[in-house]
Amino acid sequence: MNEFKSMTDEELVELYSKGENAAFDELLSRYQSKLFTYISFIVRNETLAEDLFQETFIKAITTIKQGRYAESGRFGAWLTRIAHNLIIDSFRHDKSDLLLSNDESEVDLFNNAELCDDNVETALVNRQVLRDVRRLINVLPDVQREVVFMRYYQDLSFREIAEATGVSINTALGRMRYAIINLRNMALEKGISLELA
Questions:
Q1: Is residue 17 within 8 Å of 64, Cβ to Cβ?
Q2: Would you state the CATH architecture of domain 1-100?
Q3: Following CA atoms 91, 86, 104, 132 in sequence, which dihedral angle do they give, to the nearest 10 degrees?
Q4: What residues does CATH 1.10.10.10 cover in the chain?
Q5: With bands split at pLDDT 50, 70 and 90, how would you rate the model's confidence at 181?
Q6: What is the DSSP string of 157-170?
Q7: Nearest-CA neighbor of 173 among 155, 184, 152, 158?
Q8: What is the CATH number that goes with domain 108-197?
Q9: Are 122 and 197 in contact (CB under 8 A)?
Q10: What is the pTM assigned to this prediction?
Q11: SS3 116
């Protein structure tokens, strides 16, 4: 199993396509956390996120086993694109079921100890700013919220975001630009300071 850790994604895909199931186990361990976090953040429903996560990997397995995988060097972006398409299909199917409050989520992506100083007052101010930002992000249009998440929480480049969402780089950049403008306008309108202490 340790032999697989040093292999590239492409080498693992090749081995898996030839019947080496342990190669796919390594791919799964590399991407499962990042992919599930992405799906959960977008759909904000844990049960649906689990279903979409499983569907993503089923689709990936099927494509590889049928010899149709052709995304050399982009396995992670390919998985994200599959998940993105499944999310869009799910939104189209029944959007009303997906409108949940982030307050119902047990995962708080913004409260990260690394962002806080040792000073208790500074930590409290920073925590409040991050809560405010999370609330503002949650009211952004879906496509803007998605690009903000992919850029700042998955650390994807705009090229990777464009590939994963099936749009041009200019469209991805435009969505980010409008997301930032909307966040600033909403913060001004609500009298929220977005500066960390």
A1: yes
A2: Orthogonal Bundle (1.10)
A3: -80
A4: 108-197
A5: confident
A6: -HHHHHHHHTS-HH
A7: 158
A8: 1.10.10.10
A9: yes
A10: 0.55
A11: coil
